[in-house]
Amino acid sequence: xxxxxxxxxxxxxxxxxxxxxxxHLILPFPREAHPAILWHKFAEQLADKxxxxxxxxxxxxxxxxxxxxxxxxxxxxLVALKPLVWQPQLFELAFLLLAIDWRNTDKFTAQxxxxxxxxxxxQAKMLIKPLINRSTAPLSLLGLGKAxxxxxxxxxxxxxxxxxxxxxxxxxxxxFGYRMCVELARAWSPSREKYAPFGLAAVRAVALLDxxxxxxxxxxxxxxxxxxxSAQLIKQQAKSWPLPGPAWLLVAVGGKxxxxxxGPAIYDGKKSVRAKLGGRIAPSAIHVAQVQKxxxxxxxxxxxxxxxxxxxxxxxx
Length: 317
Description:
This protein is mainly alpha-helical.
């Protein structure tokens, strides 16, 4: 047991992982004060300056260059800064802590479920509006249930599982860089007409980064009850969704709980046709709570498995 403790102690990457999780559990960053919000706003201001081309190919090129302008200098500065830090583990801890976020998702879910349960549409719309790009004004209780479920699924998938996966691959810089890429894709989402071609580079970059972690997490979600039905739905429905990683995860959760997800959505006053995913049950307050419970347990299992794998890889435990 003492040898195991010393091996764990000497494994800085594993200590940083659990240290960040513990710090986030005790004292999470308020969403309003998170650096991602400032990054998001700066991205929108940059797009206002450079997203001025009516030509499709020029707009795509402008979006690609804008994405590089945001991401490349940030990564260069972080990589150059790391050797200058007196304690590398604290550097890794700081940026993993900035990247990970599940407490704000839990807080949102509790408030959102309570609002849906008492059929308070205005409160539910107010809670979800900062988290999604779609128009919230026309959403019914059914639409709010779907939007809340999808938001919860993607928040756990990207802000926790994706961040931890890229921490294992690239350390704190990898985790933080991934989170900033996700924020850029959300800020320049092509689902909104003004970013339709401009944001393609940002979305494709995140689709590539999401491909492995979200699919692995989807398989973890599917394991257990209704595994055959979930696997069949993934095979049938995932190809109809534009992003492969989110497609698997949304279908896996929808199939597991037989919930109806996806479907048409309104962005900036215009209806966007999206494929229907999952089962046939319209999500209500209780179903959103079930989604949160399912994902929380699977997320905990992911953390345990990743910790064991990191121990085996880095220290031979």
